[in-house]
Structure formats: C-alpha cells, structure tokens
Amino acid sequence: MARPNLQLIEALRRTAHKLATGASYQWGHMGSCNCGNLAQELTQLTKAEIHQRALAVGRGDWHEQLNDYCPTSGLPMDLLIADMLAAGLSSEDLQQLERLSNRRILERLPLEKRYLRHNVRDDVVLYLGTWADWLEEQLLEKITLPRWEKTPVENSVSERDSVIA
After folding, report:
1. Whole-prediction pTM value?
2. With 0-12 CB in 10 A as exposed, 13-18 as middle and 19+ as buried, what is 12?
C-alpha cells in the first residue's frame, strides 16, 4: 500500500495532467506506459532512458521487472524501481497501476466507471487522479493542528469587538 506523502500525491497529479493534455502514451513502451509515465515524474528520467534501462535487463514488462527486482543488484532498472519505492510506492502498487487493478481505488469510482482498461489513456488519468485524491485524504487524516487557548487579552479583545459590532 502506498505511503501517503506530498511528493507522491503531486507526482500522481502531474502524471495525470500530462497524460490528459497529450503526453506520450504507449502501453507497450516501458517509458510511456502507466508506470513509465509516473516514473518520469518521480525520477526525472526521460521515457527513452526508462525504456533503455528496462531493455538492458530484458525481463519483460513492469510486472516482471518488479517480480525480479533486487535492491542490491545495482542494475539501472532496479535503481529506478528503488527510487519509486522510496517515494512511497510498493511493488504491488506499481503492478496494480500497470493494470489499473487496485480494488480500493476502483471502489472509489462511480459504478459505471469501475471497469477500466489498462491501455486506455483516459482510464489511466481517472485512476491516477482517484489514487491521488485517496492518498491526500489519508494524509489529511493524519494531520492535527495545535489548538491554542486564548489568553485573557485575546478574550477581552473578542468581547470588546462583539460589543462594538
């Protein structure tokens, strides 16, 4: 499960916005697919650099890359995945992003929108936006602001202002 944080939420929203406004999208391209577009935002690598790293390993799609991920290998693709995990994602999150299959995200969609297709740009945009909203809600639930008691001076000013009004 993704760890809610501002960096990740902003990256999800930037990715959704870029896709909605015409960024390169090609599901079969490791740098332009669902995970590839998010990887661009989290790592600042280009789609070509991401694709090149994936092909150098030769393990297949993102699902297979994540299954074979080794944090100590030093391989460029594993370093990229490590950066994405450090941003608050899990391997499962990325595998689900590739197929738009996280049940908890899908349940947040209206019934008629819950059957997303993993290689359709508009469905990816909807999934990413819904995911960002959900993570933001989780993050806000954890935030508590300090409550300050009014001092006698503040109380007397408030009372005076209410009399004047």
Report:
1. 0.85
2. buried
